Every structure is written in C-alpha cells, then in structure tokens.
Amino acid sequence: MKNFIQRAITGLIFVAVLAGCIIGSPLSFGILFCLISAMATAEFCQLVNSQEGVKVNRAICMLGSITLFLCFFYYGMNPVQTNIFIPYLIILIYLMVSELYLKKENPLNSWAYAMFSQLYIALPFALLNVLAFQSDSFSSTSQYLFIFPLSIFIFNWMNDTGAYCTGVLFGKHPLFKRISPKKSWEGSIGGAVFCIAASFALAHFFPILSIGAWIGLALTVVVFGTWGDLTESLMKRHLGIKDSGNILPGHGGILDRFDSTILAVPAAVVYLYLLSFI
C-alpha cells in the first residue's frame, strides 16, 4: 500500500510538471526537455559503463544531447538557420577522435555506446521540437503548438493505463514472453482502445487534425510506444537490472518513464510528415 501511494504521488507530480511545462510556453518546454534529455543520457551512460570494457564519456554525451535539443529548438523557431547544427557536429567529431588518445583496450565499445546514446536518446527528444514548432514554406517564422508533443504523452499514458487494467482483468496470451512476460495481447488491445477514446477527445478540443488522423496518430503511438517499452526491457534484461535508475520514487529512472516516448516520437514525426501536415 505504501509503495502504491508513493507511485501515485510521484506519478501525479510527474504528469503535472510535464503537462504544465509543455502547455506553459516554448521556454518552459525547452528547459524541461533539455534537462530530461541530459538526465536520460547520463543514466544510459552510467548503465553501459557498468559493463566490462565500456567507458563512454558521460559528460560529453550529455553535452551532445543538450546541444542537439537546443539546435532543433532554435531551428524550430528560426527554420532558416541551418548553421545552428555545426556545434553538434563538432561534438560528434570529438567523440570519435578522442578515442585515438585515450588508449582504451576496446575503443569500439565506447564509440558504439557513445554514438548510440545520441541516436537512442538525444535524437528522439530533439525531435519533440519538430512536433512542437510548425511553419510553412512561405514564412521564416513558426508557431508553437503544444498539443502535438503533449498528445504523444497523453497517448502513452492512456496506453499504459489501458494495457495494465485490461491485462490484469483479461490477459492470457503473452505479447512478447521472451522480453516481458507480463505483457499480453489483451492488454495491448485494451491500451489501443483507451488511446482511440482519447483521440476522439483530442479531435473535439483540437480539430487541427481530423478524427481519422488523430486515431492514426494514437495507433502509431500505441505500436511504437510498445516497441519502445520492449526495447528498453531488452536492454535492462541484457544488463541484468530491474530499473534504469531510482530518481523517481516508485517509478525507477528517467529511461523507465520515457522508454515508450523514445520510439513513439520519431514514429509520430514520420506519420505527420506522411500526412503532409508538418
């Protein structure tokens, strides 16, 4: 009971801070996800550095995540300033060249994990800016639409809630037994139903997309959010750990809370591009 109350309080605070910063302003959105990106990267680096033969530069990887997010953030507000990405390219070059001088026994591992931290964590969080800032080909300015990044989290939360409730009540057929034995097909379907219901509400209050387009976005988040959850479970199983960290009481680490987001965001960007909206 104590753990449930702790999880509930942490969850409420987490949702309130996340939603409040996204809705608040572009500045609060940028500050929040810049910090989250850095913290998630630090957590990832700490996990992989626990393996023998791996020693990635956590500080530089964190700097890379922050820089990439800020590059996309600035580009989102000023779509013509492509030279803003140059500092990030310098960081990537440093990550490669620095291994020449560190004389590690297996530099390939450090290269692989350092670059993977940018692909797996930094890029998805940076792509939230692509969802948040919308511009047209006739203007060099853009507008901040909080509903698109917020919708990704709403769908993830509804998917998690629906999958848990439906899975507990009706779950019999494992979804991916080798990676996550507790997940079931029934739970996954229940999560999708909850998300579709949420998409009707979003279509009503934010008719910027049609009902069909909102449903498509919801199902995109369900599928890729589930895969994101499973990929993090695979990583934790490989590392032999239960949680990625303990920064969130009752919920584990940052990666535990954003595992679904990591694949859902790039998939949502592709989906909206296919709709020719972004």
Word description of this protein:
It is a single chain. Strands 1-2 form a two-stranded antiparallel sheet. It has 278 residues and is mostly helical. It has helices at residues 2-24, 26-48, 58-77, 86-97, 99-102, 107-132, 147-170, 185-205, 211-239, 254-274, and strands at 133-135, 142-144, 174-176, 180-184.
Q: What is this entry, summarized?
A:
The chain is mainly alpha-helical and 278 residues long.
Supply database-style keywords:
two-stranded antiparallel sheet, 4 strands, mainly alpha, 278 residues, single chain, two-stranded antiparallel ribbon
Low-pLDDT residue spans: none
The total count of strands amounts to 4
Tally of separate helices? 10
**Largest sheet: spatial strand order:** 1-2
Element order: H for helix, E for strand:
HHHHHHEEHEEHHH
Distance separating the two termini: 45 Å
Would you tell me the overall average pLDDT? 88
Instruction: Using the alpha-carbon principal axes, give the shape.
Output: globular
How is the biggest beta sheet arranged? 2 strands, antiparallel
Helix content: over 70%
Q: Structural class of the secondary structure composition?
A: mainly alpha
Query: What is the radius of gyration computed over CA atoms, rounded to a whole number of angstroms?
Result: 19 Å
Beta-strand content bin: 5-15%
